[in-house]
């Protein structure tokens, strides 16, 4: 069986940045489960896995536009410190949810000054080329329920 649309794939993976630092890995954990063709994983990795089989090992370099996108400068903004009313301490790396015209946006503080706070609404991996090492552990047909829901269900079925 090969990886095609509506197949549930179980895989072990390690993803590194361009400097070779490990960003995430399934090592020591259960394999990641996803359903092919439903945007459950980044598009570039989904494309790299299309047609692969059980036991295949895949190395893939995914450019930002096929991963988490390029950095969007408009999503980096300086806001008045008063926008964080009720928060005693503001530190770089803190996460908040901000309201935008498109709805809620997750932002991270990247700089704190006396009067302003710089926040970034980009995905933390935006603008990065990602290096994946993947081992396809298992492939199976998705159930009707999984296809209806648009994602794989783990052992024991529906979990959300």
Kindly describe this structure:
The protein has 2 domains: 7-68 and 126-149, Chitinase A, domain 3 (Roll); 73-120, Thrombin, subunit H (Beta Barrel). The chain contains 2 helices and 9 strands, in the order βββαββββββα. It has helices at residues 43-49, 144-149, and strands spanning 7-16, 22-25, 32-35, 57-62, 76-80, 95-100, 103-112, 116-120, 130-141. Strand 1 (7-16) and strand 2 form a beta hairpin. It starts with 6 loop residues before the first strand and ends in an 11-residue tail after the last helix. The relative contact order is 0.27. The model has no long low-confidence stretch (mean pLDDT 94).
In total, the number of strands is 9
Largest sheet: 5 strands, antiparallel
End-to-end C-alpha gap:
28 Å
CATH class of the largest domain: Alpha Beta
Portion of residues in helices? Answer: under 10%
Give me the secondary-structure category: mainly beta
Radius of gyration: 19 Å
Compact summary:
With 160 residues, this protein is mainly beta.
Task: Please specify the SSE layout and strand pairing.
Elements: E1 7-16, E2 22-25, E3 32-35, H1 43-49, E4 57-62, E5 76-80, E6 95-100, E7 103-112, E8 116-120, E9 130-141, H2 144-149
Antiparallel strand pairs: 1-2, 1-3, 1-9, 4-9, 5-8, 6-7, 7-8
